[in-house]
Design goal:
Elements: E1 2-3, E2 9-10, H1 32-52, E3 56-62, E4 75-81, E5 88-96, E6 102-108, H2 109-113, E7 119-126, H3 129-139, H4 143-146, H5 166-178, H6 187-196, E8 204-205, H7 208-217, H8 228-232, E9 235-236, H9 241-251, E10 256-260
Parallel strand pairs: 1-6
Antiparallel strand pairs: 2-5, 3-4, 3-7, 4-5, 5-6, 7-10, 8-9
Length: 261
């Protein structure tokens, strides 16, 4: 996994603010009060995680206003503690800004929130002890790297390996942890296992005009991996943070959700 490159990442599932495909983009410098609020959120998130007794959790941030798609959070990572009293690290996929490429990164909690947030709030999903143990074991292997697809698409279809979005990497990594040992080592195997448990993400309604604009003007949005009939009907079955929460609730009845605001 690579360290985060400064001012070089845009992550999450969003359609607002279209930019020209292939152009580089520059992040707006954060104002002093935004830095303070971001770091305060990071501190309160760590405190909530410490109080939960967890060693592994899913952490979501709100990078954009996605309310028109009935979504509250845009981007999710896997937070791991290296030992019971240790530091929290977030492992997540980030889109290289202005491109159709992505990488996997390890970040401290402060850096995870030190971005242009729409809402200074986070959602934590605390898996049950068994799922935490399996995730911690998995993250220490090369399987998460094998499950990463660098061809990035914000609206990647849940059951295609052509592209991947950041939340889809979390979903497929969770599948590898939840499936019987050594059953999931590749994306195709992860998706086969997800189908076997009847997983289907919440559908996002994307009108034709929005699809056309996104396809024409964003390097990191494509629809050619989606089934034709559903795409034409504006039914986009992509992986949001809500989709990941739905999946973990299917396989882990001990999982619980916390909000830090």
């Amino acid at each position: 996994m690579r360290p985060l490159l400064p001012a070089a990442a845009l992550a999450g599932l969003l359609l607002g603010g279209l930019a020209h495909a292939g152009q580089s983009c520059e992040e707006r410098p954060l104002k002093a009060h935004e830095v303070v609020l971001s770091m305060d959120l990071a501190q309160r998130t760590v405190q909530a995680l410490d109080a939960s007794g967890a060693q592994v959790a899913l952490v979501s941030r709100a990078g954009q206003d996605l309310s028109k798609y009935r979504l509250r959070y845009s981007h999710m990572g896997i937070a791991v503690r290296d030992h019971p009293e240790g530091r929290w690290t977030v492992v997540h996929e980030l889109n290289d800004c202005g491109t159709a490429a992505s990488g996997l990164y390890n970040e401290g909690m402060g850096n995870f929130f030190l971005t242009d947030l729409y809402r200074f709030e986070t959602q934590l999903v605390i898996p049950g002890p068994d799922t935490q143990a399996r995730l911690a074991k998995l993250i220490a292997t090369r399987t998460p790297l094998r499950l990463h697809e660098p061809h990035y698409n914000m609206l990647a279809y849940v059951y295609s390996t052509k592209y991947q979005n950041s939340n889809q990497w979390v979903l497929e990594t969770l599948a590898a942890a939840a499936a019987p040992d050594r059953q999931v080592e590749t994306r195709a195997e992860a998706q086969k296992w997800l189908r076997s448990i009847g997983f289907q993400p919440p559908t996002i309604e994307v009108p034709a005009a929005v699809r056309l604009g996104a396809r024409m003007f964003r390097a990191n949005v494509a629809f050619d991996d989606h089934p034709f009939d559903r795409r034409m009907a504006g039914q986009i079955d992509t992986v949001s943070t809500d989709a990941v929460v739905r999946m973990i609730r299917m396989v882990d009845p001990q999982a619980r959700t916390l909000t830090v605001d």
